[in-house]
Write a structure and sequence with these properties.
Blueprint lengths: L4 H11 L2 H8 L3 H15 L4 E4 L2 E4 L1 H28 L4 E8 H6 L1 H11 L3 E8 L1 H9 L5 E4 L8 E15 L10 E2 L7 E6 L4 H12 L4 E7 L2 H9 L5 E4 H9 L4 E5 L4 E10 L6 H15 L2 H9 L3
Parallel strand pairs: 3-4, 3-5, 7-11, 8-9
Antiparallel strand pairs: 1-2, 5-12, 6-10, 6-11, 6-12
Helix pairs in contact: 1-2, 1-3, 1-4, 2-3, 4-11, 6-11
Length: 308
């Protein structure tokens, strides 16, 4: 149970829903309301206007929310630095990740943990989402990050950062001349897909089915790196995470095309066995991930892209 009005306020604002905030913080609905009211009494101003379960920030609430976020981030940073002074974290941590995360995000998080906790030994495994989930389920991994949906009742699942899926096409492709496309433009195309078991493949299959797209031909590749190279080579079009094609887009080696009326997103998930006791090594790794998650989008992007 969280008894921190500042944390409660920020969680409520981010969910824009009192019940969902209460559920995440393991609080009762009245307890959440009480903590918000105590902040308002302390500040002498109304922070939120609520109707039923939906709420909107007042002007004062907008200001307070921005500072509250910064305070919580600084608190977490202070706790980490104090912890480093008081004890040395040791141990071995087995971390898994699906390909997109494992190739483009995980190395930087591991580097951060290694810099702060040099006594922690980290072993990493990268595979498709299905294989990583099985490895966590079988206790071969302590913790993992995946990009597909997780439907295992014996695993703890925490949604992390948002991932944008975009349509990429070869520069010489007819679609590359269009500023925006509809599902009609995507009919009878050659598609580059990931292998079955991949979170990106599941996402692509679902959308192609939902949009009623007739696929002329497919080519299957076992990694995001291979998919983007196939698109660059002119083999076909693909739906990919923006993470994996940032450099190619900047270098104009391939083209990203907007799909009319649609912004495609999914969540990255942090998973682990529910029955596993959290070691210090697992705890500090999770703290680094949560610190990254709690950063604003622009700050998070700078954090990662600065290490490209």
């Amino acid at each position: 149970m969280i008894n921190d009005p500042l944390k409660t306020f920020v969680t409520v604002v981010e969910h824009k829903n009192l019940s969902r905030a209460a559920e995440e913080l393991y609080l009762t609905h009245p307890n959440v309301i009480s903590q918000i009211q105590s902040l308002e009494e302390e500040l002498g101003t109304k922070l939120v206007d609520s109707t039923s379960n939906h709420l909107e920030l007042t002007e004062s609430g907008e200001i307070y929310y921005q500072y509250a976020k910064q305070i919580l981030i600084l608190q977490d940073k202070a706790k980490q630095e104090i912890k480093q002074l008081s004890n040395v974290v040791t141990g071995t941590l087995k971390v898994g990740a699906s390909y997109t995360i494992g190739e483009y995000i995980l190395p930087f998080v591991v580097a951060d943990v290694a810099a702060h906790y040099p006594k922690v030994e980290i072993e990493t495994s990268i595979a498709n989402t299905e294989e990583i989930i099985k490895a966590v389920h079988d206790h071969h991994l302590n913790i993992a990050l995946v990009e597909g949906e997780v439907n295992c009742s014996d695993l703890s699942v925490h949604p992390m950062m948002e991932d944008e899926i975009i349509l990429v096409v070869p520069n010489q492709h007819p679609l590359a001349r269009l500023p925006i496309v509809t599902s009609e433009h995507l009919q009878d195309q050659v598609w580059i897909l990931r292998e079955c078991g991949s979170g990106t493949r599941a996402f692509s299959d679902k959308l192609i089915k939902e949009w009623g797209i007739k696929v002329r031909k497919t080519y299957i590749f076992g990694s995001g790196q291979a998919v983007k190279q196939a698109v660059t080579a002119g083999l076909g079009i693909a739906l990919v995470s923006r993470w994996i094609v940032r450099k190619e887009l900047n270098a104009k080696e391939l083209k990203s095309i907007r799909i009319k009326g649609k912004r495609l997103t999914r969540s990255f998930y942090l998973i682990g066995p529910k029955d596993q006791e959290m070691t210090e090594a697992t705890e500090v790794f999770t703290e680094q991930l949560l610190a990254l998650e709690s950063s604003s989008g622009k700050k998070r992007d700078r954090y990662l892209t600065s290490k490209d």
